[in-house]
Protein backbone atom coordinates (compact mmCIF):
# COMPACT_ATOMS: atom_id res chain seq x y z
CA UNK A 1 0.00 0.00 0.00
CA UNK A 2 2.91 2.37 0.72
CA UNK A 3 4.16 1.90 -2.85
CA UNK A 4 0.76 2.78 -4.30
CA UNK A 5 0.54 5.93 -2.16
CA UNK A 6 4.09 6.86 -3.17
CA UNK A 7 3.09 6.56 -6.83
CA UNK A 8 -0.07 8.65 -6.30
CA UNK A 9 1.96 11.25 -4.37
CA UNK A 10 4.57 11.32 -7.14
CA UNK A 11 1.98 11.72 -9.89
CA UNK A 12 0.18 14.47 -7.96
CA UNK A 13 3.36 16.46 -7.37
CA UNK A 14 4.59 15.91 -10.92
CA UNK A 15 1.27 17.02 -12.39
CA UNK A 16 1.43 20.19 -10.28
CA UNK A 17 4.61 21.10 -12.15
CA UNK A 18 2.44 21.59 -15.22
CA UNK A 19 0.80 24.60 -13.57
CA UNK A 20 4.00 26.20 -12.29
CA UNK A 21 7.44 24.61 -12.44
CA UNK A 22 8.83 25.97 -9.19
CA UNK A 23 5.75 25.99 -6.94
CA UNK A 24 5.76 22.20 -6.35
CA UNK A 25 9.54 22.20 -5.88
CA UNK A 26 9.16 24.91 -3.23
CA UNK A 27 6.33 23.05 -1.48
CA UNK A 28 8.29 19.78 -1.45
CA UNK A 29 11.40 21.53 -0.16
CA UNK A 30 9.48 23.25 2.65
CA UNK A 31 7.53 20.08 3.52
CA UNK A 32 10.76 18.10 3.72
CA UNK A 33 12.36 20.68 5.99
CA UNK A 34 9.28 20.71 8.23
CA UNK A 35 9.40 16.91 8.53
CA UNK A 36 6.14 16.27 6.65
CA UNK A 37 7.77 14.54 3.70
CA UNK A 38 10.56 11.99 3.43
CA UNK A 39 12.77 12.16 0.36
CA UNK A 40 14.48 9.29 -1.44
CA UNK A 41 18.20 8.79 -1.03
CA UNK A 42 20.10 11.16 -3.28
CA UNK A 43 17.35 13.79 -3.14
CA UNK A 44 18.18 15.19 0.30
CA UNK A 45 19.36 18.39 -1.39
CA UNK A 46 15.70 19.23 -2.10
CA UNK A 47 15.12 19.65 1.64
CA UNK A 48 17.94 22.12 2.31
CA UNK A 49 17.64 25.81 3.08
CA UNK A 50 19.63 26.60 -0.04
CA UNK A 51 17.11 24.74 -2.21
CA UNK A 52 14.13 26.30 -0.43
CA UNK A 53 15.47 29.82 -0.92
CA UNK A 54 16.39 29.13 -4.56
CA UNK A 55 12.95 27.66 -5.29
CA UNK A 56 11.22 30.56 -3.52
CA UNK A 57 13.08 33.13 -5.61
CA UNK A 58 12.50 31.15 -8.81
CA UNK A 59 8.79 30.76 -7.98
CA UNK A 60 8.36 34.50 -7.42
CA UNK A 61 10.12 35.30 -10.71
CA UNK A 62 8.10 32.65 -12.59
CA UNK A 63 4.78 33.82 -11.14
CA UNK A 64 5.57 37.47 -11.88
CA UNK A 65 6.65 36.72 -15.45
CA UNK A 66 3.32 35.07 -16.22
CA UNK A 67 1.59 38.42 -15.57
CA UNK A 68 3.49 40.15 -18.40
CA UNK A 69 1.06 40.09 -21.36
CA UNK A 70 3.30 38.96 -24.24
CA UNK A 71 5.69 36.95 -22.10
CA UNK A 72 3.05 34.60 -20.67
CA UNK A 73 2.44 32.82 -23.99
CA UNK A 74 6.18 32.51 -24.63
CA UNK A 75 6.74 31.16 -21.11
CA UNK A 76 4.07 28.51 -21.63
CA UNK A 77 6.11 27.16 -24.52
CA UNK A 78 9.49 27.45 -22.81
CA UNK A 79 8.20 26.01 -19.52
CA UNK A 80 6.96 22.78 -21.10
CA UNK A 81 10.26 20.83 -21.08
CA UNK A 82 11.17 22.21 -17.65
CA UNK A 83 7.81 21.13 -16.24
CA UNK A 84 8.45 17.58 -17.50
CA UNK A 85 11.95 17.52 -15.98
CA UNK A 86 10.65 18.87 -12.65
CA UNK A 87 7.87 16.25 -12.73
CA UNK A 88 10.38 13.45 -13.23
CA UNK A 89 12.61 14.76 -10.41
CA UNK A 90 9.74 15.17 -7.93
CA UNK A 91 8.30 11.74 -8.69
CA UNK A 92 11.71 10.12 -8.16
CA UNK A 93 12.30 12.16 -5.00
CA UNK A 94 9.17 10.95 -3.22
CA UNK A 95 9.01 7.35 -4.50
CA UNK A 96 11.13 6.01 -1.66
CA UNK A 97 9.52 2.55 -1.48
CA UNK A 98 10.06 1.55 -5.11
CA UNK A 99 12.75 -0.54 -6.77
CA UNK A 100 15.14 1.83 -8.63
CA UNK A 101 14.29 0.49 -12.11
CA UNK A 102 10.55 0.77 -11.46
CA UNK A 103 10.99 4.15 -9.78
CA UNK A 104 12.83 5.72 -12.71
CA UNK A 105 10.56 4.12 -15.29
CA UNK A 106 7.50 5.48 -13.53
CA UNK A 107 9.21 8.82 -12.89
CA UNK A 108 9.77 9.29 -16.61
CA UNK A 109 6.46 7.86 -17.81
CA UNK A 110 4.00 8.79 -15.05
CA UNK A 111 5.83 11.77 -13.55
CA UNK A 112 7.00 13.41 -16.76
CA UNK A 113 3.83 12.37 -18.56
CA UNK A 114 1.46 13.87 -15.99
CA UNK A 115 3.45 17.12 -15.93
CA UNK A 116 3.31 17.23 -19.75
CA UNK A 117 -0.46 16.61 -19.81
CA UNK A 118 -1.16 19.40 -17.32
CA UNK A 119 1.28 21.75 -19.06
CA UNK A 120 -0.46 20.99 -22.35
CA UNK A 121 -3.77 21.88 -20.73
CA UNK A 122 -2.40 25.22 -19.52
CA UNK A 123 -1.03 25.98 -23.00
CA UNK A 124 -4.43 25.17 -24.50
CA UNK A 125 -6.25 27.26 -21.89
CA UNK A 126 -3.96 30.26 -22.39
CA UNK A 127 -4.29 30.00 -26.19
CA UNK A 128 -8.07 29.94 -25.84
CA UNK A 129 -7.94 32.91 -23.46
CA UNK A 130 -5.68 34.88 -25.79
CA UNK A 131 -7.80 34.01 -28.82
CA UNK A 132 -11.12 34.99 -27.27
CA UNK A 133 -10.12 37.99 -25.15
CA UNK A 134 -6.98 39.23 -26.87
CA UNK A 135 -5.05 38.31 -23.72
CA UNK A 136 -7.19 40.36 -21.33
CA UNK A 137 -8.25 37.26 -19.38
CA UNK A 138 -4.71 35.87 -19.20
CA UNK A 139 -4.24 37.64 -15.86
CA UNK A 140 -7.05 35.50 -14.41
CA UNK A 141 -5.67 32.37 -16.10
CA UNK A 142 -2.23 33.04 -14.58
CA UNK A 143 -3.74 33.54 -11.14
CA UNK A 144 -5.70 30.28 -11.32
CA UNK A 145 -2.62 28.38 -12.55
CA UNK A 146 -0.49 29.74 -9.71
CA UNK A 147 -3.10 28.85 -7.10
CA UNK A 148 -3.51 25.39 -8.66
CA UNK A 149 0.26 24.81 -8.61
CA UNK A 150 0.47 25.43 -4.87
CA UNK A 151 -2.92 23.92 -4.00
CA UNK A 152 -2.37 20.60 -5.77
CA UNK A 153 1.18 20.33 -4.43
CA UNK A 154 -0.09 20.69 -0.88
CA UNK A 155 -3.05 18.40 -1.53
CA UNK A 156 -0.76 15.73 -3.01
CA UNK A 157 1.22 15.68 0.25
CA UNK A 158 -1.74 15.89 2.64
CA UNK A 159 -4.41 13.81 0.84
CA UNK A 160 -2.80 12.25 -2.26
CA UNK A 161 -5.80 10.23 -3.48
CA UNK A 162 -8.19 13.20 -3.35
CA UNK A 163 -5.58 15.38 -5.06
CA UNK A 164 -5.27 12.87 -7.90
CA UNK A 165 -9.06 12.68 -8.36
CA UNK A 166 -9.35 16.49 -8.43
CA UNK A 167 -6.42 16.77 -10.85
CA UNK A 168 -7.99 14.31 -13.29
CA UNK A 169 -11.29 16.22 -13.15
CA UNK A 170 -9.54 19.56 -13.68
CA UNK A 171 -7.44 18.28 -16.58
CA UNK A 172 -10.51 16.83 -18.29
CA UNK A 173 -12.35 20.14 -17.87
CA UNK A 174 -9.40 22.19 -19.17
CA UNK A 175 -9.08 20.06 -22.29
CA UNK A 176 -12.82 19.96 -22.95
CA UNK A 177 -13.35 23.72 -22.58
CA UNK A 178 -10.07 24.64 -24.28
CA UNK A 179 -10.76 22.47 -27.33
CA UNK A 180 -14.29 23.86 -27.74
CA UNK A 181 -13.08 27.45 -27.55
CA UNK A 182 -10.19 26.84 -29.95
CA UNK A 183 -12.55 25.15 -32.45
CA UNK A 184 -14.76 28.23 -32.37
CA UNK A 185 -11.76 30.52 -32.88
CA UNK A 186 -10.48 28.47 -35.81
CA UNK A 187 -13.94 28.23 -37.38
CA UNK A 188 -14.36 32.00 -37.19
CA UNK A 189 -17.56 33.91 -36.51
CA UNK A 190 -20.59 31.71 -36.93
CA UNK A 191 -23.61 32.73 -38.96
CA UNK A 192 -25.98 30.48 -37.08
CA UNK A 193 -26.23 26.74 -36.74
CA UNK A 194 -24.55 24.52 -34.21
CA UNK A 195 -21.21 25.41 -32.59
Give the overall pLDDT as a whole number: 88
Shape: globular
Give the total of beta strands. 0
Radius of gyration: 17 Å
Number of domains: 1
Amino- and carboxy-terminal Cα gap: 46 Å
Instruction: Please estimate the helix content.
Output: over 70%
Identify low-pLDDT runs: none
Structural class designation:
mainly alpha
Please trace the helix and strand order, writing H or E for each element: HHHHHHH
Discrete helix count:
7
Query: Hey, roughly how much beta strand do the residues contain?
Result: under 5%
Q: Sheet with the most strands?
A: none
Question: How does this structure look, described?
Answer:
The protein has 195 residues and is an all-alpha fold. It has one domain (2-179). It contains seven helices and no strands. It has helices spanning 2-16, 22-33, 49-65, 69-94, 100-133, 138-158, 160-187. It is globular.
Keywords:
195 residues
Compose a concise summary of this entry.
This protein has helices spanning 2-16, 22-33, 49-65, 69-94, 100-133, 138-158, 160-187.
Topology overview:
Blueprint lengths: L1 H15 L5 H12 L15 H17 L3 H26 L5 H34 L4 H21 L1 H28 L8
Amino acid sequence: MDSILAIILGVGLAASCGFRVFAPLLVVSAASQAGYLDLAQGFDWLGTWTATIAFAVAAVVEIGAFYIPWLDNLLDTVASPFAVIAGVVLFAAVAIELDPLLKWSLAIIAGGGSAAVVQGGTVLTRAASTGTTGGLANFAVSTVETIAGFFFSLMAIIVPVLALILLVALIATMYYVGRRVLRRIIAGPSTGGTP
